[in-house]
């Protein structure tokens, strides 16, 4: 005879049960780190950690949706990640397709829109095709924006913006005098998006790794030792709870 077991809530969930619904970060950015270490701890190849990381992406998307986060920007592949072994890069480039194959129906159901930041054109054809399909399919969804940073590097983004601005000044599209922070932001991949309110980095590393250098000027940072494949709704909630304890002053008092 089967018996229903009592449902024990995770201690942390209970502790952070009451998130203030009017103080949810609009934009959360995450540096998903620690896939390789997660795999190594289990005697598995590094790619096993990346594969498992897909499930954490889905968990965090679900949670972000539930809490009414507007934008979730995930650092999936940096311009520096091309330095990795060819076989690992090939595997990483297949992940978007794999993720979308499993989760696109659920993303559609939950009204999630998919977009990317970074040098999209330089991605392999098969990666572009899978991601472009998802972008097109979800383009009319108006729920959470799931924004993948794919082949993204902040310095490259800033250089690209400067070149475009200089060219627009050259052909009198804009004037030097009119150039301000707001206009500069329009030249970045994140054009039209609010800056992240909260940045999460997993795996215990505490650096930015060329991620959103301009956009993170006033962002709250939250670091956890949890490795990305172990990241889940409970830890995400903990991050939101910690965010809600912060006083954001933007340089004021
Ligand atoms: C960093 O861990 C992680 C990455 C470079 C890849 C991130 C990709 C995913 C989490 C998969 C999901 C992606 C999509 C597009 C759905 P690491 O390899 O640097 O880990 P380590 O520091 O422990 O070696």
TrEMBL record:
Its EC number is 2.5.1.-. It is an enzyme of class 2 (transferase). Its cofactor is Mg(2+). PROSITE patterns: UPP_SYNTHASE. One of its GO terms (molecular function) is magnesium ion binding. Keywords: Magnesium, Metal-binding, Transferase. Pfam families: Prenyltransf. One of its GO terms (cellular component) is cytosol. GO terms for biological process: polyprenol biosynthetic process. It comes from the Bacteria. Signal peptide: none annotated. InterPro entries: UPP_synth-like, UPP_synth-like_CS, UPP_synth-like_sf. Binds 2 magnesium ions per subunit. Transmembrane segments: none annotated. The active site is at 33, 81 (proton acceptor). Mg(2+) binds at residues 33, 220. Homodimer. Belongs to the UPP synthase family. Catalyzes the condensation of isopentenyl diphosphate (IPP) with allylic pyrophosphates generating different type of terpenoids. This is Isoprenyl transferase.
């Amino acid at each position: 005879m089967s018996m229903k077991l009592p449902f024990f809530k995770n201690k942390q969930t209970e502790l952070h049960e009451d998130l203030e619904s009017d103080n949810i970060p609009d934009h959360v950015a995450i540096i998903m780190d620690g896939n390789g270490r997660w795999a190594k701890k289990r005697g598995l190849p590094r790619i096993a950690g990346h594969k498992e990381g897909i499930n954490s992406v889905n968990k965090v998307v679900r949670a972000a949706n539930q809490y009414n986060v507007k934008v979730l920007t995930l650092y999936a592949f940096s311009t520096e990640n091309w330095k990795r072994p060819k076989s690992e890069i090939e595997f990483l480039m297949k992940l978007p397709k794999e993720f979308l194959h499993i989760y696109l129906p659920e993303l559609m159901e939950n009204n999630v829109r998919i977009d990317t930041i970074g040098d999209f054109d330089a991605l392999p054809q098969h990666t572009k095709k899978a991601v472009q399909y998802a972008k097109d399919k979800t383009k009319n969804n108006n729920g959470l924006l799931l924004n993948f940073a794919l082949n993204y590097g902040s310095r490259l983004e800033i250089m690209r913006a400067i070149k475009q601005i200089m060219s627009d000044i050259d052909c009198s599209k804009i004037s030097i005098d009119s150039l301000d922070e707001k206009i500069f932001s329009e030249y970045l991949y994140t054009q039209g998006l609010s800056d992240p309110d909260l940045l999460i980095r997993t795996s215990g590393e505490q650096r930015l790794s060329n991620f959103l250098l301009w956009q993170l000027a006033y962002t709250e940072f939250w670091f956890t030792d949890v490795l990305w494949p172990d990241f889940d709704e409970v830890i995400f909630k903990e991050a939101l709870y910690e965010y809600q304890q912060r006083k954001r002053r933007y340089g004021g008092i």
